[in-house]
Amino acid sequence: MLSPKKYRKQLSDLGIEGMEVDVSTIDTAMDTLNQLNEMEKILKKIRYNVRADIRRIRLEYVTKLKEVDQSANVKKGLFSKKPSIAKITEQKKKLTRERNLTIATYDVVENTIDDYLDQIEKSRYYIKNSIQQRVG
Q: Hey, which of 12, 30, 105, 116 would disulfide with 4, CB 3.0 to 4.6 Å?
């Protein structure tokens, strides 16, 4: 499982932000189109990994929440009391907030990837129209 920071680094290494769509000749337009296709494949792999990480995080927190529930039913010693309902509820709320914050950082990465994929699709459409106008 990679951190969102590492995913953002992978995205910046792709060089999508500053990429220029060059359609001055048919050859350069085709090269640009091929680059966009490669970037799209890589972005889809990264998005798949981000979604898998989000699923793992959710499962991890489901397990933690179950552990909190189970600890509520277990006495620790002969004279110890069960944890109070308020304490258990607070632990669950804390875990839920923690989970939501963790997932939110991955959601930002996923939204960035979706934006890049939309931009690639629009660029692909522009390049194809440009090639069609030159060809005939």
A: 105
Residue 41: C-alpha distances to residues 47, 64, 118 (Å): 10, 35, 13
The Cβ-side half-sphere exposure at 78, using a 13 Å CA radius, reads 0
Return the structure tokens found at 12. Answer: 């910046």
Tokens 């914050």 map to which residue? 101
Q: Give every CB contact of residue 41 below 8 A, 6+ residues apart in sequence.
A: none
* Cα first-last separation, the chain: 49
| Cα 132 to Cα 29: distance, rounded to the nearest angstrom | 11
Question: Can you tell me which residue has the tokens 């996923």?
Answer: 110
CA–CA dist 67, 55 (Å, integer): 19
In whole angstroms, give the CA distance from residue 85 to residue 72. 8
pLDDT of amino acid 80: 65
Residue type, 18: G
Taking the CA atoms of 68, 74, 80 and 82 in sequence, report the sign of the dihedral they define.
positive
Spans of the chain, pLDDT less than 70: 74-80, 136
